[in-house]
Design brief:
By secondary structure, the chain is α+β, with helices and mostly antiparallel strands. Helix content is 33%, strand content 26%.
């Protein structure tokens, strides 16, 4: 990691600490939940967390762009820009389930250079940086080596994220796995990076949902792309496939695209 990226990693970790403090203060306090224009839920904790992270980034890296779920896109063609999802899993957060997390990424032009998945209530933090591997609570972690679909578990946050066509494609893959698990939001991808599950296959996602995951999954030895096998960028569609290794990924893609 170069000195500039070291500084940015410190900012990302400090931002995750800020998120822990704010979300921890609000968790299980019976917050009001509003619906945004797209009918996804939002709370004061989402807004407070993103505002605080934005303020930190602006103070330390005034030349960087910022794209957050709640505050919109302020990238403006800047080379370095940050991606923020202050609470990934607002439904879980608002209903007292501790698997919600904070997602933070730094983009080096179009490619994520570092990513953080932070689960403050569970005291688990995954950090991935280009060329440095992935850690879970500062210890190296790695994906599983299983390559047989029939011996794999598969995660997705909810069946509601799939339309009719994408559900058919999802089932082509999921029905051949040993078992499927619903729920988890970004926690699913942390579990994959730590070697506890094999496949995460989801739809109806946005760049702030998936770009922070890329360095974490790849740094642990996994593969994460869209459903056509293309690298994830700001311009990718809504579908994401993450797997524990390349051979498994190719097999999963073949089933999704039968």
């Amino acid at each position: 990691m170069n000195a500039s990226l070291d500084d940015c990693l410190k900012t990302a970790l400090d931002a995750a600490d800020i998120a822990r403090e704010i979300t921890g203060r609000h968790f299980r306090t019976r917050l009001a939940v509003d619906n945004k224009q797209d009918q996804s839920p939002v709370t004061i904790a989402d807004r407070e967390t993103e505002e605080a992270i934005r303020a930190l980034i602006r103070s330390r890296h005034p030349g960087h762009g910022i794209f957050g779920e709640e505050g919109g896109n302020q990238i403006q063609e800047k080379h370095w820009h940050w991606i923020i999802d202050p609470i990934d899993g607002t439904r879980s957060f608002a209903s007292g389930r501790p698997t919600f997390g904070t997602l933070i990424a730094l983009m080096d032009a179009r490619k994520p250079a570092l990513g953080v998945i932070d689960h403050g209530i569970l005291d688990e933090r995954w950090v991935g940086t280009t060329g440095s591997g992935t850690t879970l609570n500062e210890r190296p972690c790695a994906t599983r080596r299983e390559t047989r679909i029939g011996h794999c578990s598969i995660y997705a946050t909810s069946p509601d994220m799939f339309d009719e066509e994408s559900m058919i494609r999802f089932r082509e893959l999921a029905d051949r796995c040993q078992y499927r698990v619903w729920g988890g939001d970004c926690y699913c991808y942390g579990l994959l990076a730590a070697g506890y599950t094999d496949i995460v296959c989801e739809a109806d996602l946005y760049p702030y949902d998936y770009l922070p995951l890329v360095p974490v999954v790849e740094g642990a030895g996994g593969i994460i792309t869209d459903w056509d096998g293309n690298a994830l960028t700001l311009d990718s569609g809504d579908k994401v496939l993450a797997t524990a290794n390349e051979k498994l990924h190719l097999a999963a893609l073949a089933l999704l695209n039968r």
